[in-house]
Write a structure and sequence with these properties.
Strand order of the largest sheet: 2-3-4-5-6-7
Shape: globular
Bound molecules: S-adenosylmethionine
Largest sheet: 6 strands, parallel
Structural class: alpha/beta
Number of strands: 9
Mean pLDDT: 96
Order of helices and strands: HHHEEHEHEHEHHEHEHHEHHE
CATH class: Alpha Beta
Number of helices: 13
CATH architecture: Alpha-Beta Barrel
Length: 352
């Protein structure tokens, strides 16, 4: 049985700027009939606006060095037990080659901050674009405008920078030496430079509430991102949040579903974190409206060192395992570039 109040909230958030109360009502659902209805509605919206498919992106974690002190992340600079590595350009190119040989048309280069110089990353991007017909997404954190410009000029296509939270005080409590305004400025720079910009949040970080998640979803609605990544918080033993519980699975799935219904077009991964809880819940993520899978192409010897949280799953996946995942979710696997689906994307001015 679906309550009339739930049906009404769902219909309102689909047709107008979403009210915070409606978002909170839907995020808080726990009755199995109502959550199934919410997730099925999200899948219908996804299938209408993004087609019935899963985009695949090859993830390469290029460096675990980081100057930041994010309270939740195992790469934070105070974690003396963390192993630090930085892949050489040749090593990254080998990983890209492997991904390209398996038909991937997008690589995502992710790292902590300060593992490599601006120039060496620009060089790497240029080499990738010269050698392979592949889109390059970056997930390298906060940098000055000039760095983003250099990487765009070198050929980068997309940039992922999660907002983490739109609540200023909460943001500062998680990132003691950084501010929400800098994060917003970085996102503005990325858009201005013509990147396909992505953002997102973790769900269940201590101090977060249904109300802050609702506000974050309003932010996604106001700002229309090409990609939105939402995954559960997982406590890392060498962080100040070590003793806190992991993010709630159902709340994470509801957050994916409500975000999908409100924002319609983004590419939304069934995140690695969803695959790293007590079991792999990426299928549930796809059944709540996600539509991206990111197999891990980091070389085996580095995978375990990129420990943002414990027991991080680093599956390479095979064509067969991807097909299986797709079939089970009633979605086709799309090996294409899968660029932004936002209607206004084609009107963006490319950087000179
Ligand atoms: N340094 C870049 C940045 O900050 O965007 C990219 C790397 S960072 C490790 C990528 C994402 O991992 C972050 O945006 C954060 O949401 C997520 N993350 C970090 N620690 C996590 C944890 N303990 N549990 C779940 N996700 C986490």
């Amino acid at each position: 049985m679906i309550r009339a109040s739930v049906r009404d909230a769902l219909s309102r958030i689909q047709s107008a700027f979403p009210r915070k109360e409606d978002l909170e009502t839907l995020l808080s659902l726990s009755d199995p009939d109502e959550t199934s209805y919410l997730h099925a509605t999200a899948c219908a919206v996804r299938n209408t606006y993004c087609q019935e498919r899963i985009a695949v992106r090859a993830l390469i974690e290029i460096s675990s060095v980081c100057k930041n002190s994010c309270n939740y992340c195992g790469l934070n600079r105070y974690n003396r037990e963390a192993s630090r590595y930085t892949m050489s350009n040749n090593e990254v190119l080998q990983s890209v080659k492997l991904a390209a040989s398996q038909g991937f048309k997008t690589v995502v280069l992710q790292s902590g901050e300060n593992g490599r110089t601006t120039e060496s990353i620009a060089q790497l991007i240029a080499q990738i674009k010269q050698k392979f017909p592949i889109a390059v997404s970056l997930s390298l954190g906060e940098h000055p405008y000039e760095d983003y410009l250099a990487w765009k000029r070198a050929g980068a296509d997309r940039y992922l920078l999660r907002i983490e939270s739109t609540d200023e005080d909460f943001y500062r409590s998680l990132h003691t030496d950084r501010s929400l305004s800098t994060r917003l400025e970085c996102l503005a720079h990325l858009r201005r430079l013509g990147y396909q910009a992505g953002s997102g949040i973790m769900v269940g970080v201590p101090g977060q509430s249904i109300s802050t998640i609702a506000r974050d979803i309003q932010f996604f609605s106001e700002n229309q991102f090409a990609m939105i990544g939402i995954g559960p918080f997982i406590p890392h033993p060498q962080t100040p949040l070590a003793k806190c519980p992991a993010g709630d699975l159902l709340l994470t799935l509801n957050t994916i579903a409500v975000t999908r219904i409100v924002t319609k077009y983004p590419w939304m991964p069934a995140t690695t974190a969803l695959g790293s809880l007590n079991r792999d819940y990426r299928m549930e993520g796809l059944m709540a409206g996600a539509n991206v899978i990111m197999p891990n192409f980091t070389p085996q010897r580095y995978k375990s060192q990129y420990a943002i949280y414990p027991n991080k799953q680093s599956r390479a996946e095979t064509p067969e395992s991807l097909e299986h995942l797709g079939k089970s979710a009633n979605l086709a696997i799309d090996y294409g570039r899968c660029d932004s689906l936002l209607p206004e994307w084609n009107t963006c001015t490319p950087i000179a």
